[in-house]
Amino acid sequence: MLYRPERPLTVQGDHTVLLEVNHPDYERARDLLVRFAELEKSPEFVHTYRLSPLSLWNAAAAGHAAAELLQGLEEFGKFEVPAQVRGNVEDLMSRYGRLRLLSEGGELYLEADDPLLLTGLRRKERLKELLGEPVGEHRNRLVPGYRGRLKQELLKLGHPVDDRAGYRAGEAFRMQLAPVTRAGRPLKVRDYQQAAAAAFHQSGGPAGGSGVVVLPCGAGKTLVGLSALAKLRTATLILVTGEAAAQQWRREILDKTTADPADIGLYTGEEKEVRPITIATYQILVHRRHREDEFRHLELFSRRDWGLIIYDEVHLLPAPIFRLTAELQAYRRLGLTATLVREDGRADEVFSLIGPKRYDLAWKRLEEQGWIAPAVCTEIRVPLDGHAERYFLAEPREQAQVAATNPAKIPWVKALLARHPGEPTLVIGQYLDQLERIARELAAPLLTGKVPNKRREELYQQFREGSIPCLVVSKVANFAIDLPDATVAVQVSGTFGSRQEEAQRLGRILRPKSDGRTAHFYTLVSHGTVEQDFALKRQLFLTEQGYRYRLVLPEDQS
Amino acid sequence: MIELAQLFEARSQVPPVFGKSSPPTPGEMAQALLGTPHPQALLAFWRTDDAWRRLGSLLPADTLQALAWLVDDRPNYPLPLTEAQARLNMRFRDSRAASLQLGLLQGRGLLFFQDAEVGDLRYLGILFPAEVLLARANHLRGPLPPPPPAVQTQADAGLRFYANSLTLCSRAAQGLPVTRESRPSKLALKVLQRQFLKLPPEVLPPNFHEEEADEASLHWQLLSSLRVVATDGHDTGEGPALAAWLELSPAGMAQAFWDRLINDLEDMLPTLLAWARLRHWKDVAWISRESLLSGVNPGSYRWVDEPLLCWLLLLGLLRTGRDEAGATYYGWTELGRAVFDGQPGPQWETGFVLQPNFELLAPLHLAPSLRWALAALAESAGGDPMLRFRLTAPSVRLAVHLGWTGEDVRGFLERGTGPVPDNVLTTLRDWVASAEEPVVYNVPVLALPSERLTGKLLGTTAIRRLLGPQISPTHFFVPSENLPALRKAILNAGYQMPTAMRQLGETAAQAASPLSPGWLAGAPRRSPPPPPPKKVAMAWRVELPTIARKYLKPLAPKSWELQQLAREAAAGAWLVRLQTEQELVEGLVLAPADSWYVSEFNLSTEKGRRTIAFANLRTVQVIASPESTAPDGKTGPIRR
């Protein structure tokens, strides 16, 4: 067994790759891996990447070859690349491009260099209704409207399709990035944002125009979307996770582009405007009164000749929109996300229906370059004190709530606020009674789902301006609200179950601070309770993301 | 210089390798050799590369030719005499010539006859001392083949076999059940083998079957024969040689396994020929299979594959490769060179990585003693070639129960990894403390005198909702703030409950406010029942209380709820509707109902009492209970 301990990387038999972070060749090896593999875990010393079929196809779609990867793995590897991994990499990567979707004379064709491959596919039961009649040995005409479904089915069979059938141009809409923002500051599109937009656009050719850009929270994905919009200059439908996010996109467009307010429409629960740039929420699109009803708002997709659809937080895309997206393959599609991990395991549908990953940048690199703030996560164990009896006598299903709402946490919230005087602070929780009490004791405004949008916007604005230093927020803090100057977050209760929720909450404080200070994310956990189990999962998640994590036990609190 | 006569005389005195039920042990062979006039010279002669050629100078040409033919042609086992004679006659033209040559060679100790009778058949074996075969193999070996084209490693077992061996050791030390034959059960070995690192299929012996746990069985055989593991007749455990085993180097372990697997190389010319080639061409990186088996009849390839190559590959002493044309190659590994050439071999790794996410990463050649400790402290999560472990609360608590202290844990981790990440250290401290230190809470407990009363009180919603978790059939935690309400609810149900709490060990007489005398006497004193209603409430007009509505749903026949309901119904003389598969019965529940049967009074037929087994029930509906409100607004038991 060849063993070269001086090298930084280990290829495991299960297709994961371990990379030593403190190795002098770390950056070179990371730059190799980021092209071919998904980063699964990035704790402090050794990062874990995975060579999955999707990651390899993403790499092949970006023009990388198996030999490039294997040569790199040999160069950096402590051990020889396991034979089965070598074989799978070669096999999987060779599959991309064997099947191509082409458009000629207004018709779509599936083309294969190997006639045997096409013959085999024609015999598959699940493809019979999607494939039209054969045109020679190498081609099949496609049944109109089945472009997306065919790609989905072929991917499930292990055959990714290189879709070069092109896109409709869409209704023209003149818009460009503003050289100066409305606030009078010069607009600077960062290098990686430009690179991401260019990787998606691919000079307007059929090789680009659909795909996903993966950037960490706080890295400015919105500006990547706007750059793509400015390159394409076409009517655009932007799909976002909620009304606050819709408002945020609207503000960004007005701030950073030449678009006129009259050009931007919001299609939400409260407003239904369809303009050259329309921002719609996922909720409204999948809203229906009864389960048997049609999704009538999905007609928005045909209300205008859209040239681009942007899917914000594409990892949260609801199933009905996936289904519809299968029929929208002639539209350019840009997915924006911080993670390709979907809790529902539908990452393959993102690949086949939105498109391959076009750009990815590790958050650590952004932190090194100062584009996102360094953050320290601290878990403080709060004794139950007088709350213990209530906790132990509660029904098991109620214990989590009793632990989460431990009143002894409130003095800790005050102490932490006192430790960061004047710093914009979010107090985040799940239980409204608890949050109401905290808001009362801190004399801070409480922001819940019940607060009307207008009031919410006012509070956001005051928080941004600094007139409110502390905001107590419920789950509304989870998605896409923009609180640019928050430097401290104190989580008093939460489900801790969802990786997305943690990432989103942490994302609220990752925007770079003007003075370069470190962001702090505190979590208060009742000591000796089930809350610790949730907190341990959270600790694992955050340390696997690479964040520094501190734990303060009751005996250390003197 | 050794003389012809001396050589043959010495040889003829050495016991033959063959003709015995088992080969001579190295000790027997050495003793026999030491009894000869020139043992060193004798051994040295046969070890020389040109022993066969020099033998030619000692024998007549036609005798040497006869020996060569016999060695090359020798069947692998004794043949029936007639068949053996036919072969010899074919070679020597007539039996006289054959007898002459065979006699000459036998007299000089260069071959032996094995004569046996099985039934009516006589068998004849012509067999040779191992050194004669080896001399012939060295003679046939041929020159070093030309360097191969680019060869890519195809399979290398590395140190996986040894890692799996350690897995078996640690599981065996924890105790596996053994069969009457004092070996772990097949099921235990199968489960164990699932935890093994996968060996490349190319290195597995062809007769190995994963579903039969052949690898685990082999490890058990090897390790028990080395006394690394042992049994006490009931369970497996540590063997007396375990501690020394864990200190061995990789080459030391490989040597021990090799010696156990191959007591002596198979006494077949193809085996020895391949062995001679592998050993003689040891300095080349790759030897093609074609070169290795050159001159060997394809029918005899198995004498190379099974007794030689498969063990060398399995033990990671040899690896396989392929060239671009797909031809197979073999090459010595670093471990192989260490075992057979005394070169420096691979060493165990003495460090591992501990990450802030509690993950431990160690190469599979982690020192056995460290691996042993890691297996005790952390949960294994597989991984190859980097082993993954994870520290978890249960694994650390288990280690504490096995005798590790917090300082042991910390010290071990620091020795293996350097400074332990802060968050891990703090969490470990918490886990160790929670395993070491019991915590005492002061919580009120309601103790009821009998299960029967427990059933009755639990059937009352007003009481049940005030109780905390049940800790025994008759004991419940009670939240302090619920005590006044519970006292009131129990009083409403017709029982008394003292105001002061009794301390543990305190008797009733000592208690400031003892439980009610009725309780102490074991016979609960009921409050006077409320007066009966003036008229019977009709079932369909009764406003059912919550508990009754709850039981409108079907209940599982053996459910706790159904049993509670029956107890409560019996105690309170409830009017119920019972639905079975065949019928619908309405009536009063009369029996104590602490058994599996309910006696009821059939309203429609007035035939008397019946018993319906719980198992036959499909639905129970409470039509009226003591808590029901009768149409006249009064509450109380409803009687017909």
Q: Stretches of chain B where pLDDT falls below 50 for ≥5 residues?
A: 16-26, 508-554, 591-608, 626-640
Using only CA atoms, what is the Rg of chain B? 42 Å
Overall mean pLDDT of chain A stands at 87
Biggest sheet layout of chain B = 4 strands, antiparallel
Which secondary-structure class do the elements of chain B indicate? alpha+beta
**What is the gyration radius of chain A calculated from CA atoms?**
25 Å
Helix/strand/pairing class of chain A, anyone? alpha/beta
| Side-by-side strand order of the widest sheet of chain A | 12-13-11-14-15-10-16
CATH superfamily of the largest domain in chain A, by name, is P-loop containing nucleotide triphosphate hydrolases
- On the 0 to 100 scale, the average pLDDT of chain B is 76
Protein topology:
The complex is a heterodimer of chains A (558) and B (640).
Chain A: E1 9-11, E2 16-20, H1 26-36, E3 38-41, E4 46-50, H2 53-61, H3 66-76, H4 83-95, E5 99-104, E6 107-112, H5 115-122, H6 125-128, E7 131-135, E8 139-142, H7 147-156, E9 161-163, H8 191-201, E10 210-214, H9 221-232, E11 236-240, H10 243-256, E12 264-267, E13 277-281, H11 282-285, E14 308-311, H12 319-325, E15 332-337, H13 347-354, E16 357-360, H14 363-368, E17 375-382, H15 388-393, H16 396-404, H17 409-419, E18 425-428, H18 432-442, E19 446-447, H19 453-465, E20 470-473, E21 488-491, H20 499-507, E22 519-526, H21 530-545, E23 548-552
Parallel strand pairs in A: 5-9, 10-15, 10-16, 11-13, 11-14, 12-13, 14-15, 17-22, 17-23, 18-20, 18-21, 19-20, 21-22
Antiparallel strand pairs in A: 1-2, 2-4, 3-4, 5-6, 6-8, 7-8
Chain B: H1 4-13, H2 26-34, H3 39-47, H4 51-58, H5 61-73, E1 79-80, H6 81-92, H7 95-107, E2 112-118, E3 121-127, H8 130-140, E4 151-155, H9 160-174, H10 186-194, H11 214-225, E5 229-231, E6 236-238, H12 242-246, H13 250-261, H14 269-280, E7 287-288, H15 289-292, H16 302-314, E8 318-323, E9 328-332, H17 334-341, E10 353-354, E11 359-363, H18 368-377, E12 379-380, E13 386-390, H19 393-401, H20 406-417, H21 422-436, E14 445-447, H22 451-458, H23 461-464, E15 470-472, E16 475-477, H24 483-492, H25 517-520, H26 546-550, H27 560-572, E17 575-580, E18 584-588, E19 597-601, E20 609-613, E21 617-624
Antiparallel strand pairs in B: 1-3, 2-3, 4-8, 5-6, 7-9, 8-9, 10-11, 11-13, 12-13, 14-16, 15-16, 17-18, 17-21, 19-20
